[in-house]
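Next comes one such specimen:
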Amino acid sequence: MSDSAKGVAAILLACTIWGFATLYYKALSHVPPLEVLAHRTLWTLVFFGALLAVQRRLSAVPALLTGPLKARIIGAAAIVSVNWGLFIWAIQSGHAVQASLGYYILPLVSVLLGVVLLGERLSRLQGAAVVLAAMAVAVLTVGQGVPPIIALALALSFAPYLVIKKKLDAPAVVSVTAEVLVLAPFALAYLIWQSGGVAALDLHTALMLPISGLITGGPLILFSWGAQRVRLSTLGIAGYLNPSIQMYSAVMIFGEPFTRWHGAAFGLIWAGLALYSAESWRQDRVARRLASSADTSATVMK
């Protein structure tokens, strides 16, 4: 397999694991969401800490937490903990359809935040995609009588995290390890306060909880490795596999309702994502063409 093919395979595997993670969190519905979140935080720290120790990069974590990026790491940690906790609660509480909608909306919200916070400009197709996403939210609001608060909260809580990470000059594994290290004292204190919680009484649950670190860290490593080997447009399109699997699990496995209003909203979202993907593909082609022209010019000048 070529490097590009291996990259695509790694990204698809990562998104598949993330997508089916809903089954794992649903199976832990008898455990309070905050307890699952605490375990997810601690076991992710164990997973990444062990990995960095093997790679002899563990010293990069305290350096990151004491350097000029400390505030960004703390901010990212706070945001991702809210997103993780909300996602776990949504799955356990029977709102997996809304959770999948949130991660469909996420790329379009990220584009909008790029305009507001980073001064980026929207192309016409990107602007149309954002408008379609807004229309989808409006359709669900009218159809259900209330806005899709959970979906919006998931998208709006993770998009700022992506903005921070974009400006964070640090390897993904190192930065995430630093983030969960910031959260670890709070997670540990909560579990102590709960006197061990459900896990202390249930051997099966106690054995399941450490898997949370594996299904959080493993896909991230695969995704990061694959992202270095594929085009940006491929990366964006492959990312939609995760919420697609989430939605399939919500409707076909969990039996959550999927009304005509959901169908209309998701249709608008998919149309918006199609425009967004087409624009990403076009921009990727333009960037590669310019890079190729620059290389050719440099060769001629030599």
